[in-house]
Write the structure tokens for this entry.
Amino acid sequence: MRVELLCTGDELVTGLTPDTNSPYLEARLFELGIKVTRVVLVGDVREDISRALCEAAARAEVVIVSGGLGPTSDDFTAECAAKAAGVPLVEDARTLQFLRERAAKRGRELTPNVARMALVPEGSEVVPNPVGAAPLFIVRMDGCRLFFLPGVPREYRALVDGEVLPRVRTELEKQSERTHRAFRLLRTVGIPESVLDARVAPLAAAHPRVVFGFRTHAPENQLKLMAEAPSQAEAEAALAAAESAARAELGLAVYGADGDTYTGVVARLLTEARATLALAESCTGGLIASQLTAVPGASSFLIGGTVVYTEQMKMAWAGVPAELLERHGAVSSPVAVAMAEGIRAACKTTHGLSVTGFAGPTGGTAEDPVGTVYCALATEGAPTRCERFSISGDRELVRLFAASYALELLRERLLTAPSAP
């Protein structure tokens, strides 16, 4: 089944608002084994929308359109749909009554601009909106069905899940010959995209039913595996074999899959180990603490942290000796070690994690230029580990990767340490 998405609105083509509806629907359709063939963004120009509708309907069996169904002057998708289908706009009585009752409940009168949301192309199938005002309507053009949905994400998702996907699934099941797909996203850290590609390249020949793809989402790189086969069972078997081979090749670099998040995985490992953590952050400015506390239940393992941005605070809050700072400087291995050990001792935790570095754009030395970061991990009953990293990029990227490298020291130790009794 060929499916295309068409999203309307000037806000989408000027960068004011990101398109969050398409990725949501693409993922949901892929669960049905449907890979969207095209996503088109169109601004608020009547001729452009009408033309895009006709072109999409000529190519696809299903087109799902979002946006332009509201009450304002730039909401004219229904008008464009009627023009593309060659039919007039008509008033849907059930929608009009719903809009009247909705206005009355709010102590208002139904205004003409709101009443416009009851206008749909003649012959449309109209479906009420369970969480909003503008309805879903479905138009047939030759061999294509076009679904028109409001662009408000909450309304869009409710109608996608409750109305669009069940209809698409029903049509899909009627097809005697179809391609079944299975998908896995393997998430990796600490391995550049080019290296990831080179390491898994030999696997492609051994798994001909699986397409290997790549995506960078700093600070991680992702391996996309998509299996295609005549049956779902065959697709899932092919995917499982390719995934197993990829995990064996990449080892600890794979931190999770699909919806896993890096901090969520680290949080789970800390919780399973019944371990606690304290943080001493300099150049990351609390970024690690922010990432970890975004995970529900972080209070069970994160005891506390401090932003020790100056030498004075490194001494006062992380217990770094003054002579270490004077001898080695704030960005150095000895200071990073002292920060990790000092914060662990102060907070009485299982682990103490520290990071110090030159995020730029100024600072740095000949030995440690901008982008140099030292991360250290102090663990109860184990030697303190410290690593030096050279990170390329702007200030934001240096801080982002510094936080990731620090957490990776912790993840590796949690994966290799003996289990808690």
Remarks:
- Residues 180-257 form a domain with the Alpha-Beta Plaits fold (CATH 3.30.70.2860).
- The longest helix spans residues 153-174.
- The chain has three domains: 3-174, 180-257, 262-416.
- The first strand starts at residue 3 and ends at 8.
